[in-house]
Amino acid sequence: MISLRLWRTLPIERRPTYGWLLLLACLVMLSAPKSGYAENSPPLKIVAFGTSLTARGGWQPALETRLAACLQRPVKIESVAKSGETSLWALTQIDRVVAEQPDIVLIEFYANDAALQRFVSLAQSRKDIGDILDQLRQRLPQARIIVMAMNPFSGLRGLIRPFVGSYISAHRAEAEKRGLEFVDHRPNWQRLTPEDLAAAIPDGAHPLPDIASEIIVPELVKHIAGGNCRE
């Protein structure tokens, strides 16, 4: 192989090899993924499993983007969620969650269980979430299972859920009894002023998607990534 010193003494027309190498290096640099991670990296798969707070939440795209930037790998979130449903419905949807073979499952099903008109007792809700968690642990042994408490309720939506705190405590207890994770988003919502909170959740139950992203996503990124965030 010709040395760099000798190559420099050659006429321009006799330097094709190094010229092509330089051109190739430039092309590689220009074509490198701008996302900061290799495009063929396996995605981190997440299933968001819940009620309208997930189905209508709108925070999933922001979580994909922020978590991908943090972990330097693609993130794909699928939702298995339906407005108005309870933990009884969730028990019928386990196959859909498992079929996605997720790395992480985010779960919230206390909110409609706690609504008086749904007639799901606290004991039934606790049994249901326990059964859900047991099935997911058995069928997705490598997955992280994270139970969540979402935003506060107000107005009529709050009045029909007078014992919602007890339902959250029951779901939390079932998760912790199994050594599973629990994330409570309510403290971050409660840092807002009453006026800002009312504006962020105008119907008393469903946050505006952009505000939900601002409140929910940083907490989930911190919890999922821990000290591995490289943003």
Can you offer a commentary on this structure?
The chain is an alpha/beta fold. It has 2 domains: about 1-30; about 45-230, 3-Layer(aba) Sandwich (Rossmann fold), CATH 3.40.50. The chain is built from 13 helices and 5 strands. It has helices at about 5-10, 15-30, 50-55, 60-70, 85-90, 95-100, 110-115, 120-140, 155-160, 165-175, 185-190, 195-200, 210-225; strands at about 45-50, 75-80, 105-110, 145-150, 180-185. It has a 5-stranded parallel beta sheet with strand order 2-1-3-4-5, sandwiched between helices. Helix 4 (about 60-70) runs parallel beside helix 13 (about 210-225). Mean pLDDT is about 90; it is low at about 20-35. This is Lipolytic protein G-D-S-L family. It holds the Pfam family Lipase_GDSL.
What descriptive keywords fit this protein?
Rossmann fold, single chain, Lipolytic protein G-D-S-L family, 231 residues, 13 helices, GDSL, alpha/beta, 5-stranded parallel sheet, 2 domains
Under the CATH scheme, the architecture of the largest domain is 3-Layer(aba) Sandwich
Question: Quick one: CATH class of the largest domain?
Answer: Alpha Beta
Order of helical and strand elements: HHEHHEHHEHHEHHEHHH
Euclidean distance between termini CA atoms: 42 Å
Number of helices: 13
Arithmetic mean of pLDDT: 88
Q: Major β-sheet, in short?
A: 5 strands, parallel
Q: Multimeric state of these chains?
A: single chain
CATH topology of the largest domain: Rossmann fold
Q: Tell me, briefly, the overall form.
A: globular
Counting structural domains, the number is: 2
CATH superfamily of the largest domain: SGNH hydrolase
Radius of gyration: 25 Å
Instruction: Provide the spatial order of strands within the biggest beta sheet.
Output: 2-1-3-4-5
GO molecular function: hydrolase activity, acting on ester bonds
Protein name: Lipolytic protein G-D-S-L family
Pfam family, one: Lipase_GDSL
